[in-house]
Amino acid sequence: MRCFLVLSMLATSAVASTCPPAPDHDAALDALFSEIQSAPTQTDGLILGQGLWAFWADAPDEKAQGLLNYGMELRNARDFSGALDAFGELISYCPNYAEGYNQRAIIRFVQQDFEAVLPDLDRALSLSPRHLGALSGRAMTLIALGRDYEAQTDLLAALALNPWLPERRFLLPPPEDADQEL
Fold first, then answer.
1. First and final CA of the chain: distance in angstroms?
2. How much is the average pLDDT of 151-180?
3. pTM value?
4. Of the residues 7, 51, 55, 135, which has the fewest C-beta atoms closer than 10 A?
């Protein structure tokens, strides 16, 4: 099956050489973020938050969707090298599609290549500023690099979108409060 998918993507690439713009889901995202922010419980907020991925993983066209799905399949199979190749091809084809960068960042995070994660997340956020996965991923990456206070900006931005994120446990008091406690 995998070989057929790769051959299909290669055949498609000969036909479609330009990636169209990503679908505009702003109105739907606005509504979903509003629901998340008014969710009565953390469970409700987290369940609603899972719905965001359907929008972010909606690729610009069939070729891009195939590359994204293939890369995620490889990632789930722990074939990180193959997944990086698939996401790299997706980024080459669709350089203005945020999810390609976000997915590549996930692989690099799992591989603990934290310095390589940040440029991908920066690009994803420049294309999709409310990408909650990229925001919280950037915060977790900065924490992994020992840059805890720098991570707070991204963490606060992510929590403004979804106050129920489990990453909120990484919130720190402002530096001046931390100094007073010492």
1. 59
2. 87
3. 0.86
4. 7
